[in-house]
Amino acid sequence: MIWRCDLEPQAQHYIDKLLEITKEVLLSGRYVLASHLGSFEKEFAAYVGAGHCVGVGNGTDALILALKAIGLVSGDEVITTPFTAIPTISAIVAAGGRPVFVDIDPETFLIDIEKIPEAVTERTRAIIPVHLFSQMVDVERLRSLLPRNIPVIEDAAQAHGCSMRGRYAGSIGEMSAFSFYPTKNLGGYGDGGAVVTSDPEMAKKLSLLRNYGKESSDNIVLDGINSRLDEVQAAYLSIKLMDLENMNARRRALATRYKQLLQGTPLVPPVISSDNIPNYHVYTVKVLERRDELKQYLFECKIQTDIFYPFPHHLHPAYKHLDYKKGDFPHAEGIGEQVLSLPIYPELDERIVEIVCEKIHSFYGGQND
Questions:
Q1: What is the mean pLDDT of residues 139-157?
Q2: Is the pLDDT of residue 358 over 80?
Q3: Rounded to an integer, what distance in angstroms lies between the CA atom of residue 224 and that of residue 206?
Q4: CB atoms near residue 3 (< 10 Å)
Q5: Which residue pairs from 37-42 have beta carbons closer than 8 angstroms and sit at least 24 positions apart in sequence?
Q6: Most buried of 17, 93, 126, 368, CB within 10 angstroms?
Q7: Is this prediction's pTM over 0.90?
Q8: Residue 369 has pLDDT above 50, yes or no
Q9: What span, in angstroms and rounded, lies between the C-alpha atoms of 297 and 299?
Q10: Residue 72 pLDDT > 80, yes or no?
Q11: Other Cβ atoms closer than 10 A to 246
């Protein structure tokens, strides 16, 4: 089977280092909030270009804690996109907020920042732009459009190593939330996440919130939760962070090959803005003809593909209470019927890309030259 994202080759590559660092952590006798986490937090903050990194349990918690840190209260509105992974929405609801959706740009799949000011009300407490699939939302442009100072929390769960005009994803908003789920460009071997910020007071608050709000064992100063990136995962991530730039470069090379080989098919490669250097977390194309039939054909050829995302969140039963209806966000609704994500990961052999594209050409009755 050709998997869309095969994690085994990367584990094989790192296995000796992983076993060595695991032994080191286990023998240290310190597994939570110790030296390996501290080292990784400094390394990742420096990589992103921010002042502070606070490691947490997962990417969803990263968003929840960021919202708690700005003082979100029940009923506050948080503007975001309906075309994203469910954790973006789950986090807003879990923090007590009300998601307010804005449609997407049908070319880039990113939230249409030009439409965000229309959605701002007196209840708007934050905006969560989602850096999706390959590239970044233009957060600097977004700020210039806002009618007042509203905190921007970047959802950078898919954006490790993306950059725009020389600034990395996670370095522009008041805070940024990252996931280190195994399939991410910088993925661990279990759950993990982080909040990045350049505000030292906010970093201090986040550090308290992730650990029950404890300033010391006998002094609880905030109503916090238990969400801490553990020492083993932090140590693993430090090892892989050193190779992130090379891994992203490999993804870009594979994406370039896909773009070349998909010419002459009804598959439209990702549209990347000229200001962006993408990381190709996934390689998502628009399929203009017979998307579902193509997906089934590729599966029969033992090629896994995925659809991210078939339904925008305003159409899910869980969010009926938001009072949106079909037709409110036509671009997000339409894109869900066209998108398809093809295999891509740093260890993928270029010959596999060629095989995938040969099968696509075959399905449409053409030849892959």
A1: 96
A2: yes
A3: 9
A4: 14
A5: 37/228, 37/229, 37/230, 37/231, 37/234, 39/234, 39/238, 40/229, 40/234, 40/235, 40/237, 40/238, 40/241, 41/194, 41/234
A6: 126
A7: yes
A8: no
A9: 5
A10: yes
A11: 10
